[in-house]
Amino acid sequence: MITLRRAHEREHLRRPRANAWLTFSPQDRETLRLPNFDHLRLFEEGRLAPRNSSRQPVFEEADIITYVREGTVDYEDSTGRVGLISAGEFQRMTAGRGIRYAATNTSSTSWAHVFQLWLRPSVEGLEPGHEQKRFTAAQRRGALCMIASPDGRRGSLRIHQDATLFSAILERGQHVVHELSNARCAWLHIVQGAALCGTETMVTGDGAGIEAQPAVSLTASEQTEVLLLDLACAGATDERVLV
């Protein structure tokens, strides 16, 4: 089963110098009716104007994966952590409830383009922390590049949930297949471009939940960038403890 979340269906938060599009958020989970994706708490695409900041509290314990696609952002949180995330870099921040987080576009002329995924950890009471790595366009071109995983394999960021995040940049006509084992599902997001997922045509900003399928099959209709999250279905029994 493929459940589409079209770009225009996302919640759009308009601010004077910032825009955010929410594919997943705690406020609309009942509307989405996708219980298997309960571990994915938030999926946000944002654009920040030059020198503008975005501030938000962390409403629950989470692994927050930030991807800066364009620009450079300066981040800080209420634990005292500060730093920069540049285009092509991914950061995993493990945050507890009540922490405040802010990101500022460092450019005086260009907008920043940023994606965030919030994952619910499989255990509670984790120590705050972060990890950051660059994954080049060459690494992601033509195939699914592993960005984050529970054990940090293949040089990926280490997260505290039975989930694996991939990124790919595909040329027109390129085809990728990602197999899904039992009790697993996937969320696919088109960052830029257009592609055929199964029999469904998807374009920039579209997302799709793939459940009860043996694989995710994707063919690019033009140059296309995607994010793919493979995760255990929320209703599945998994006795592994990821710490």
Plain-language structure description:
The protein has 243 residues and is mainly beta. It has one domain (2-232): Jelly Rolls (Sandwich), CATH 2.60.120.10. The chain is built from 2 helices and 22 strands. The chain has helices at residues 29-32, 137-140, and strands at residues 2-5, 11-15, 18-24, 40-48, 53-57, 62-70, 72-77, 82-86, 89-95, 100-105, 112-119, 129-134, 145-149, 157-158, 163-170, 175-179, 184-192, 194-197, 200-203, 207-210, 215-220, 224-232. A 7-stranded mixed beta sheet has the order 1-20-17-22-15-13-14. The longest helix is centred in the N-terminal third of the chain and has 4 residues, at 29-32. The protein is globular. The two termini are 32 Å apart. Mean pLDDT is 89; it is low at 237-243.
